[in-house]
Predict the structure of Zinc ribbon protein.
Amino acid sequence: MAYCVNCGVKLEETLTKCPLCNTPVYHPQEEKTERKVPPYPSERGTVEKVKRTDLAILLIVLFGSTAVGCGLLNLFVYKGSLWSLYVIGACLVFLVFSIPIMVYRKLPYILMVLIDGCAVLFYLALVAWVNHGMDWYVQIAVPVILLGTVLVAVLLYVYQHVSRSILFTAMVVVIEMAVFCAGIDLSVYYYLYEKFCLTWSAAVVVCAAIIAVSLITVMRISRLREEVRRRMHI
């Protein structure tokens, strides 16, 4: 049995270098031309990376089988209500959200947002149909989802084509949050009282206006803008 002359670790007879300190191992009784097989592989193996299409297939199988299984349970075992439609609709919505990103990444983001909005509208329509409540769907869900979809599409367009400044993006987000809250408030109030009126969202709109004006002031004054960037590391 040999030992390393540098660190003293015990060595296998077939080793040519110390596995701990890489010191060459010298065997005076062996011929220099003789090469022995090392006790471990000399090359590292490689594993093929998972493709996005493989993940997409896995998601389709997973959520497809979930939807089919719940549908069969609802059809043959738990027949009290159409509860499986909630699960089936949720699986479809998740697939609509995730599959385009994995399979076709070149699809415009704005178009993807519009498709996602339509998927949410479809799911809520399914819920409204099961519960016999299409009135709230038409007067609340449709306007709110359409407004949210448009606002997200506008935000993506502003970020990609107008400005990528964090301050400007923050201002757009604050304004869109105020508009979205006002849209929810107006839709619900009209559904209940058949007239348009701002209630709780008025406070959100005022706060958003104050923040937006402050951000505009910071962006217009270069010294304030640079100070904010320095302190926030942006």
Q: What stands out?
A: The chain has a mean pLDDT of 84. The longest strand covers residues 2-3. The radius of gyration is 32 Å.
